[in-house]
Amino acid sequence: MSEIVIIGGGAAGMMAAARLSVPGSRVHIFERNEKLGKKLFITGKGRCNLTNACDRQELMDAMVTNGKFMFSSLSAFDNIAVIQYFEELGLKLKTERGMRVFPVSDHSSDVIRTLENQLKKKNVCIHLNSRVKTLDIRDKKVCGVVLENGCTVPADYVIVATGGMSYPVTGSSGDGLRFAKEQNIKVTDVMPSLVPMVTKEEYIPAMQGLSLKNVELKLLQKGKTVYKEFGEMLFTHFGVSGPLVLTASARCGKRLSKGEMQAFIDLKPALSLEQLDHRLIREFQENPKKQLATIMGSLLPSKMIDPFLGIVALDSRKMACETSKGERAAIAGLLKAFPFTVTGLRGFEEAIITKGGVSVREIVPKTMACKQVEGLYFVGEVLDLDAVTGGFNLQIAWSTAAAAAADIQEKIQ
Ligand SMILES: Cc1cc2nc3c(=O)[nH]c(=O)nc-3n(C[C@H](O)[C@H](O)[C@H](O)COP(=O)(O)OP(=O)(O)OC[C@H]3O[C@@H](n4cnc5c(N)ncnc54)[C@H](O)[C@@H]3O)c2cc1C
């Protein structure tokens, strides 16, 4: 009888167990929480964006760190296979804007229930409230795990599916990274990613709660553009958030440790500076007696008017006919490049994912097996892999878990 221990009953751990079914073997999940899939439950704002129905090229492009490493496991169990897998298990899915895939019910709990049903069917032994303290490794071979209560659980194969360090309240507080370090398995530096950004200027928190749609965000460091994207963003009490900002944190968050960034929002990306100036001339000519605050109301959300006019040092009560050509040009310029400074990222508590983790150099890409320790596997967010939003991070969890399960299955049979 082969004993297979999976540490962590999150997305990756459950998928690994669900895809393991070898006669003559027993699969255990040890989960520190009182239930499985605590983080999965809050994904996609409770709706669980479980993958993305894009084509292969887009799938690869969505991978931010070590995309090439994912090639093999994605080829074996890609986004289309994930969709098929869940649908065959009876979970109805739908595809929304940006090819994001969700359960038709809009309930992440249905994704969890689907996997749990599969675990039941396969007689997986689920041990809740059971935190693994350390790995039991002897002579470069895995022998089992040691639980927090001191019990040793023998195992022929161990899959570490403990997640990263983001949203630690869900149970992922970095234990798997510690397990790796204790065995001298290289772990790259970790940092929060897909996370809001902290800004310097006081006028940003003054606009908290305001969300901007169809704008372009540009980030520069030492004069060089490091990020430029079109979409939606949000002002908060500490800085900025929203899809554009989260993606920016994943694409260039690492650079922030080297110094602050200058950010510019193009509030009118559909218009050139010249077109915008013509529009302003028209507005000013048609409404000569209107105050600037009123005129700007047709161009900006109301929460933005005072901070905006403050930056160009214009009195909001000034009338259109009193506004000089230079002042009008300053307004047009600011509409095309509203500035602020990004000083850092928010913490792991607010980060959707962790960037960094067990180095992929330590892992066989086809199987997720650890090169140094026989019988040991790492899957999911504990690995140095991450992607942008859109269902791609769960895809990493599903594909890496399926790769480990397939390898163990092959070895046992
Ligand atoms: C708010 C939020 C929304 C998200 N939305 C999406 C989305 O819509 N789509 C998407 O693709 N991704 C989303 N993600 C990212 C996605 O949830 C993760 O990438 C994914 O859950 C990683 O899966 P995992 O199994 O590797 O880790 P986790 O899901 O974190 O699971 C790890 C499990 O291991 C357990 N564990 C840890 N240490 C131990 C130990 N020592 N002993 C026993 N058990 C242990 C933990 O309790 C946990 O249950 C979101 C993340 C957050 C925080």
How is this structure best described in words?
It is elongated, with a radius of gyration of 25 Å. It has 13 helices and 21 strands. With 413 residues, it is of the alpha+beta class. The longest helix has 21 residues. It folds into three domains: 249 residues, FAD/NAD(P)-binding domain, CATH 3.50.50; 83 residues, Beta Barrel (Elongation Factor Tu (Ef-tu), domain 3); 62 residues, Helicase, Ruva Protein, domain 3, CATH 1.10.8. The mean pLDDT is 97. The structure holds flavin-adenine dinucleotide.
Supply the key terms.
413 residues, FAD/NAD(P)-binding domain, 5-stranded parallel sheet, Elongation Factor Tu (Ef-tu), domain 3, binds flavin-adenine dinucleotide, Helicase, Ruva Protein, domain 3, single chain, 6-stranded antiparallel barrel, alpha+beta, 25% strand
